[in-house]
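User: I want to check something. If I give you two sequences, will you return the structure for each one separately, not as a complex?

Assistant: Yes, each is folded on its own. Here is the first sequence with its structure:
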Amino acid sequence: MWAADAPYLAACRGEPRPTPPVWFMRQAGRSLPEYRATKGTLNILDALRDPALVAELTLQPVRRLGVDAAILYSDIVAPVAAIGFGVEIRAGVGPVVEQPFRDERDLGRLRGLVPEEDCPWQAEAVRLLVAELDVPLIGFAGAPFTVASYLVEGGPSREQTRTRALMRARPDLWAALLDRLAALALASLRSQVEAGAAAVQLFDSWAGSLSAATYRRHVLPASRKVLEGLADLGVPRTHFGVGTGELLGAMADAGADVVGVDWRVPLDEAVERAPGKVLQGNLDPAVLLAGADVVEAEVKAVLEAGRAAPAHVFNLGHGVLPEVDPDVLARVVELVRAG
């Protein structure tokens, strides 16, 4: 079991440290040969039903890399899949929805999540990890906007044109959709924390397609519902999005303790956009493929920029790419620890 003053938790509380804690988004994944060997060809949604397997996949990067936090192996569409909305994850594609969300009739397909009945394996995986880990476990969920975009588009989309059209043409229906998805995310995260997770992260992978005004009007209330709905549990809350440099101020208003920053905005600039917030990030994942000298220089640059924040959690600006050599990740951990 981890200590209450673990470096990751201390940083999330805003306690500055000589060197920041470090973990990596998608640290449990295809870049690790042991992950590929253990998971094999098993679909992720099937894998999630095996708590022992989830625990093993979550632990692998902690063992190999020596990171300061583990993140629960899961997927952002797991809650909607658990309630039977009709989502599958196709290899090489991502989440695909057989019958995309179109009108009021589809709201009926989004019933509330009852974690102990719909996905009891998730809490069991958390309990197994709490017994094994000596670093904090981060629970996570997909933010309402990003999950909505999969449901409306029927699959991955970088532009979310149908989604953005729906929010403007039917703001009442859109608000109802996001409210239901917020309730799903909140139920899932509360279950993870109640089972022992020490912190949470809300991923808004596709919010970068929105203007700040659109985000504030049509998305922020639902994200706030999730993050503020966790306040009574007393765990650190991180809010992260991709391409969200123009949204950092709005995202900071949603109620998180830590704001994740992708690689497009230097951390010393992000401080001005999200004042007073602990920052997480933000090494460009592509740097990990650029050679040892580049990696060292870029890690040092992120560390230097991060000193402007009240506290800093070192991470990538998005997830680990499948082709990254795990030894490079281990070297990044060494560089961060060396300051």
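And separately, the second sequence with its own structure:
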Amino acid sequence: MGDLGNLLREAREKKSLSLEQVEADTRIRYKFLVALENEDYGALPAPAYVKGFLKTYAAYLGLDPQQVLALYHAVAAAPADAKLPSVPLVEVPMEGRRSLWPVIMGLAIVAGVLLLAAAVVRTPWRSWLGLAPTFPQATATPTATVTPTPLPQPTPTFTPAPSPTAAVEPTSTPAPTAGVRVRFVVTGRSWVQIVADDAVVYAGLLENETREWEAARKIVARIGNAGAVDVTVNGQHVGVLGQAGEVIVSEWLAEGAQPTPTATP
């Protein structure tokens, strides 16, 4: 242990402080405090953190932080060989390598003998006596070839699909329109008077709205702004009857009704 570790430990022991108490007061972890006092810098983080630990620890113990950092720099600046303990070199004699050659040669000879013995065992004894081995002649037995008889394939029978029968849709007969119905769609403002079957049923100002009226025989309409009123009669769209600001009078009759003269004021 060096001077820096002794200095920190002695200062802490003089104040009767435990490492647990120092950890609680300085927020430096217990294992880092042990590493600082043992100068085990391999167990500590980067040098920047070590310097911060030393300054905090020195100020906590009442030591001069600059003196503590100077001792740390002296240790950190020492060459790497000075930090390692000296280990005596042991000279290993090289004679051991030469003593392996007889062993290797012996193993090679044993391997050669084993290979030769294996070759002798595998060689037939007749070859050693100069006799050629005889083997029985295999007689090939002819094999009859069986030709498969093709099975008759069934003839597919096609059943014609029934022709689709066109569905006869019932013909709807439009119901005759009874009376007369008028619908106004007003986009803007217009004064309107509606006379249904010679009776005034509406007179007033319409603005951005849709209105409908019905009558048994006829409807007479007086429109103060024809360009703002879109007209539909008995479901048939008639459209705008005039220009913007134009005053018109229109009459719509039910089927079979006779027109009657209408005086225009």
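Because they were folded independently, the notes below concern the second chain alone. Residues 80-98, 125-133, 170-176 have pLDDT under 50 and may be disordered. The chain has nine helices and six strands.
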